[in-house]
Write a structure and sequence with these properties.
It contains eleven helices and 18 strands. By secondary structure, the chain is of the alpha+beta class. It has a four-stranded mixed β-sheet with strand order 6-5-4-18, covered by helices on one side. A four-stranded mixed β-sheet has the order 7-15-16-17, covered by helices on one side.
Amino acid sequence: MAESDNSLVRSYRKYIGPGTPNEAIGYWIFAVGAILGVLGILIYVYSTTLDGADVFGPREIAAVMTSVGLLLLLLGVVVRLPTHKMVTRIGFLGAVIAAVAVLWFVTIYPDDWPTPEGDPQVVSLYAVGAAILVISAIILPALIRTPEDVFEELAPVKMESKATFELFRDRADEHRWRLRHDNGNIIGSSGEGYSSKQKAKQGMESVRKNLPGASVVEITRPEDAAQATFEVYEDNAGEHRWRLRHDNSNIIADSGEGYADRSGVEDAVERVRSYAATADTLTLENGAFDLYEDNAGEWRWRLLARNGRIIADGGEGYASRANGQRAIETVRRLDDHEFEVYEDEEDRWRWRLVAGNNEIIADSGQGYSEERGARRGVERVEELAPVADTLTMETGAFDLYKDKADKWRWRLLAANGEIIADSGEGYSSRSKATQGLMSVYRNAPIAPIARK
């Protein structure tokens, strides 16, 4: 019978635990033997309340059930052991001999059962079979070495799982794994990207190998699970700053700016904790329209370049997110509008995007010292606006980008687009920057504060 069709094996793994088919079948043989033995004893006790010929029927049943129960108990032990095949065969031989004795008893009891002690030949035959089973279960496994190929032939322990490991590539073209339940929920993931499929598989296999035997440690305080600590300190200029230091002593995030007082920097830490717990991760490969709600409750948009720099904005607020979204879609249709490059009253060059009804629907938001700078800004908007995604950072976002030195960095943006944390350093690869970002993602919400 195939393992997948063996209900005994499936039941064992469902209700008892992991095990090979032999372990499962041996367990059920042992369990049936124990039940028969107990029932045989109970029936014998009942027979003591009877008189005359009425006692023979129940006692015959009691004797058969107890005898069979004992040999099944011993046989179950033999089958469960991962021993040499010869040991198992000897055990089955003992069971057959004992079973023949039981059948012999049934044919002669009670008419040819000479004494209360029984027929010596039947009892001796049963004793030989039982003795062989005892020797197979206890003595032979210690005397006959089990060869390695016996363990290799054992079917692998395979629990029936209701989840599946998935290997995939994320939007950053990195390899990841996740564990998805049959109900569609993601119940585990790699937490970081890998540079190759092979490394992702190695990480996944490590989890598969170590998870079944992993111990469980209950952490009652969130900060006890953190592998980093917020350090609040005063710099040489008298400004208050924070940094997030990992247990390995590396600084994995810092404030990027100073604060006038201690309360200001501690408020900043709490904002980072709040946003880091729920922030999405962005990769602005094609730029992005950032749609956000300002402090006045109005919806605004701005166009972010690949490095996160703001290269255009709407200049006005909208009463609803839908109106802000419609404004973005209007800007995307560049062919319907016209760019104007002009010099303002402060001799700064700017551009604006004018619709057919002469309404200004976008502008540079900043001035340039030269006309060519403004025209380069127009070119970047023409390149990115039609293909840029639209972001709604209601819970903030981690922005992963390349700086001017071709280094990978990340920064944490609040819902209004304000930068509230950054990596503080550049990374040589996107993968390393992502690892730093994920370390902050995991630790910042629960990291304790160390005040200096």
